[in-house]
Design a protein that fits this description.
Elements: E1 2-5, H1 12-22, E2 26-30, E3 42-46, H2 53-61, E4 67-69, H3 73-81, E5 85-87, E6 93-94, H4 99-115, H5 128-149
Helix pairs in contact: 1-5, 2-3, 3-4
């Protein structure tokens, strides 16, 4: 199963393509507002409004042999702890080896933004290279998850 933190996910089409190629079910989890897919492998899961409702649902359902797509670092940490394989939309895999650093960096950036409310800007724009890196990473993780399931 592929679980997607879908509200702000820029790679939904790529996920659907990989899922179709491997005949893997996908749960697109959101607070609503997403157009349903006609693909029978794609399940739309609508959760209640709330800041972490989708994250809680994904963390409660994922486990070993699953792939999770999210840019949310605390959610990624919970999923890694549950045994899932996690990838960010830019193709960066989050694992037991690097999730601690990712959490620390997230906390540092939160503190820096809080200390300087006039700090402008965000991350860099999502690029074609990010999309390509994501496709390659998702392909690898789906194969790895399949081998874990046996």
């Amino acid at each position: 199963m592929i679980y997607v933190d879908a509200d702000a996910c820029p790679v939904k089409a790529e996920i659907e393509r990989v899922a179709s190629r491997h005949a893997v079910q996908v749960a697109m989890v959101s607070n609503g507002g997403l157009r349903p897919s006609s693909n029978p492998l794609i399940e739309m899961v609508y959760v209640a409004e709330g800041p972490d409702a989708a994250d809680i649902w994904i963390a409660d359902h994922c486990g070993a042999g699953d792939v999770v797509v999210t840019g949310d670092i605390p959610l990624a940490a919970r999923c890694v702890e549950a045994g899932a394989l996690v990838v960010k939309p830019n193709g960066e895999a989050l694992t037991g080896a690097n999730i601690g650093n990712a959490l620390a960096m997230r906390d540092l950036m939160t503190d820096l933004r809080a200390a300087d409310p006039f700090r402008q800007g965000g991350g860099r724009a999502f690029s074609r290279a990010d999309r390509s890196r994501f496709l390659s990473a998702l392909e690898r993780l789906v194969r790895k998850a399949a081998s874990q399931r046996g």
